[in-house]
Amino acid sequence: MKKVAHQVLDRLKSLLALDWRRQTQARAKVRLAIEDELGTGLPPTYTRELFSSKCSALFEHVYESYCGESDGIYS
User: Fold this and answer.
1) pLDDT by position in tens, the chain (length 75)
2) Are 16 and 38 in contact (CB under 8 A)?
3) 12: domain range?
4) Is residue 10, in this structure, part of any structural domain at all?
5) 56 is a domain residue
């Protein structure tokens, strides 16, 4: 799980630019990046519903915790 978390964070760092939350396309790229990384990193035992809930929870966490380029807990 730590490896997957690091992979997601590394990929998101390039996508979380200033005002990313205001742009629909930028939000979609972040959500897709989360889904891609979790899809390849999580074990296949995750059901479709569990996978979807994990992706949504992670997106909500990133959305609330990272406001822009230099703001947020991942800076």
Assistant:
1) 789 989 999 999 888 888 899 999 999 999 999 999 999 998 889 899 999 999 999 999 999 988 755 555 555
2) no
3) 2-65
4) yes
5) yes
How many independent structural domains does the chain possess? Answer: 1
Note whether residue 39 is domain-resident: yes
What is the three-state SS of the chain? CHHHHHHHHHHHHCCCCCCCCCCHHHHHHHHHHHHHHHHHHCCCCCCHHHHHHHHHHHHHHHHHHCCCCCCCCCC
Q: What is the pTM of this model?
A: 0.84
Residue 15 CA to residue 1 CA, distance in Å, equals 21
